[in-house]
Please model this.
Amino acid sequence: MNNIDDGSKITPVYVKPGFLVSGKISKMYDNGVEMTFLGGLVGTCFIDHLGGEGYKIGQKVESRVISVDPVGKGISLSMKSNIINWDQEVSQELKSIQVGQRFENAKIQQ
Model:
């Protein structure tokens, strides 16, 4: 999904919301975990986006980028299974909803 060359210097500018990334947990906090990925980038997954319990430092995990702050260089991640496994078809269906259309009237199949 991401088109980053292995030889390029990776900075948060290259990372976009929606990227699915694999990495390792590097720090544990009371309100979440910190994860390193793509050869040295660091992102934070706050407690409301953790996919479960029992994480430990060094554990390999998958997460999806949910926001990037290019100025502060902060990257927020989600490890929730429904966000990691977000289906592109559903995303396309949501794009077809017209402004002002009620969500329950939209034809989205799951």
